[in-house]
Amino acid sequence: MSTRVLLLLSFLVLGSAAPAPAPLQPSRVQPGDDDDDACSATADLVYQARLRDVQDDYLLALANSANLTDPRERSRREHEAREAREDGQREARAQLEARRDLCELLGGGPYDPEIDPRDFVRDVTHPFFPLVPGTIYTYRSVTQDGTEIDRVEVTHDRREILGVSCIVVHDASRIDGVLAEDTLDYFAQDRRGNVWYFGETTQQFEDGQLVAMDGTFLAGRDDAKPGIIMQAAPRVGATYRQEFALAEAEDAATVLDLHAAASVPFGSFSNCLRTKDFSPLEPDVVENKFYAQGVGDVLEVDPDTGERLELISIQAPH
Length: 318
Description:
Layout: H1 3-14, H2 38-65, H3 71-106, E1 120-121, E2 136-143, E3 146-161, E4 164-175, E5 178-190, E6 195-206, E7 209-212, E8 217-218, E9 225-230, E10 239-241, E11 243-244, E12 252-264, E13 267-278, E14 286-292, E15 296-301, E16 308-315
Antiparallel strand pairs: 1-5, 2-3, 2-16, 3-4, 4-5, 5-6, 6-7, 6-8, 6-9, 9-11, 10-12, 12-13, 13-14, 14-15, 15-16
C-alpha cells in the first residue's frame, strides 16, 4: 500500500475529517454488583454496545469510501458517514435516557420472570383481552402513507414456547391494499389472570418485497424473555414490561385510566382501560391504547399527531 493511501486512511479515522466519538459514559453499575440496580447496569451496558456498533458502521463506511476514485464522491460519502455516526450517537443517548427512565418506574431489580407451564391455562379469557379462536378484528387508520387496514385473526393454531401452549394471533396490515406488515403473535394466560406475551414473528414489506424482520423475538431464544401484555387486575400507575429482547423488543406500558371512554366506528364504550405504550428503542413514540371489557383493543391513538387506529368490525367465530 502506498504511503499516500496510508496517510489518507489515518486522516479519515483519526484526523479532523473524523472527530472522535463521544466518550463512553461509565456504567453506574457493573455486572455482578448489587442486583437491586441491575436495570441501570443493563441500560448503561446496552448504551456502550450501541456506541460501538455505531463506530463500527462508521469505520466500514470510511473503508468503502477510501476505495472510490472520484474525490467528490469520496468526500460526499465521508460526510454522510460522519452524519450517520452523529445520528447514531444521539439515538443511543436518547435510548439510554429512556431505559433509565423506565428503570425509575420499574425499580432496579433484574428482569427474570419465572415461567412454569403448570401455572398456565389453555384459554385467554381476560375481560380486557379475550382471545376467542376464530374471531377476526378489523381496524382502520388514515396515515401519511395512506389508509391502513389492520386485520387481526385469533387463529386455532398454537405454539409451545418455554413449555407453555400459546395462542397464535395473525396480524396483517395493509396500506392502500398493499401488504406492509405481517405478524404472528404468541399469547398465554396464567392462573392468576395475567396475559403473557411470549414473542412474535414479524415481517415488514415494501412494494411487495420483504425488507426487514425488526421486532421479531421468541422467549427463551437469545436471552429473550416474555412480558405481560395485560395484568390480571390493572391498576392506575402500574408500569410493566410487555417484552424483553435487548435492542430488539423492549415495549412497556403504564396504566393511565380504568374509566376511559372511546368512540370508534364499531361502537362507543365506557369504563375502558387506557394505557400508555412505549419503548426505549423509540423514545419519541408513544401510543395510548383503549381496551373495552368483553371486546379487547378498540382504539389506539398517537397523542402527538392525533393519528387513530380504530376498530371497525368484529367477525365472530363460525
